[in-house]
Design a protein that fits this description.
Strand order of the largest sheet: 2-9-4-5
Structural class: alpha+beta
Helix content: 25-40%
Number of helices: 7
Number of strands: 10
Number of domains: 2
Radius of gyration: 27 Å
């Protein structure tokens, strides 16, 4: 294919374009299904909305079958000692603090449950509101361990970076939708590594699919679209299911261990600063 004037210069001088030629958009896939459908095709009058739903579901499903790489964000922890779960986070791998050597020190996970403080009267009876729900005070975090007071210290204070965050911790507050951190991490740089989803909130033209996965996603959409129609013969549904499986095996072999979540789905809405 002929390259237009200054195309190479434009590509190599524009970081936002690097690697984009490896991808097609979900919109491209949907348009190809509709444009190539003949007048008597089962896909001729398919609605783009349904094709989009099936396409995004297929991409999410394929992500589960292929090795994924974590995303990461970097923040400076404020005095409230909490930070919301990153948007579109489905699970988290680890949370680290940047130490004096500019390396990542992985934080210990505090798995102590948040203690709900139930209110009682002077006779130790539980207190309830007008609807019979137990009244609660401020929930607390208690550390496990002994009670020990340091009277004096004759040794010099240690400044070894390896011991700097030895007692630091992070805790996942599922109810509140945020991470909690130990008090010593105030104003420190925190790195959160996590897996993400969120395709439903993106336009089809923003969802990029690796070229090696184009036919896999195409056949998935066709299979799932026909699967929900009553008048389509079972043999036709099974045909597109088998075509999907063939392409899935082919694309899996091509991608191998190189595949990542960022390679499969790469969009402005899902980019995070490393």
């Amino acid at each position: 294919m002929a390259v237009g004037p200054f195309e190479d210069q434009k590509y190599y001088s524009s970081p936002e374009l690097w690697g984009n030629e490896m991808y097609v958009t979900l919109k491209n896939v949907i348009d190809n299904i509709l444009v190539t459908a003949s007048e008597d095709s089962l896909f001729k009058h398919a609605k783009e909305h349904y094709l989009s739903i099936h396409g995004k579901q297929g991409i999410k499903r394929f992500n589960l079958d292929i090795k994924q790489e974590n995303r990461a964000i970097r923040i400076q922890l404020g005095p409230e000692l909490i930070f919301p779960f990153p948007r579109f986070m489905t699970d988290w791998a680890r949370v680290s603090v940047v130490n004096q050597c500019d390396n990542l020190h992985v934080l210990e996970v505090n798995d102590t449950p948040t203690v709900h403080d139930y209110l009682q009267d002077h006779n130790w009876e539980l207190l309830y509101d007008d609807e019979g729900r137990i009244l609660r005070g401020h929930d607390r975090n208690h550390e496990r361990g002994y009670c020990c007071y340091q009277v004096e210290c004759s040794e010099l204070e240690t400044t070894c970076p390896d011991l700097e965050f030895e007692d630091s911790w992070v805790k996942k507050n599922k109810e509140g939708g945020y991470f909690e951190f130990s008090p010593d991490l105030y104003d420190k740089i925190i790195v959160i590594e996590f897996m993400s989803a969120g395709l439903d909130d993106l336009a089809d033209c923003e969802v990029l699919i690796h070229h090696n996965l184009e036919l896999t996603v195409t056949n998935w959409i066709k299979w799932k679209l026909l699967e929900g129609q009553r008048n389509v013969p079972l043999s036709t549904v099974q045909y597109w299911q088998s075509q999907y499986k063939v392409e899935k095996r082919r694309s899996s072999a091509l991608m191998g261990t190189k595949i990542s979540l960022e390679q499969i789905v790469k969009s402005v809405g899902l980019r995070f600063q490393n």
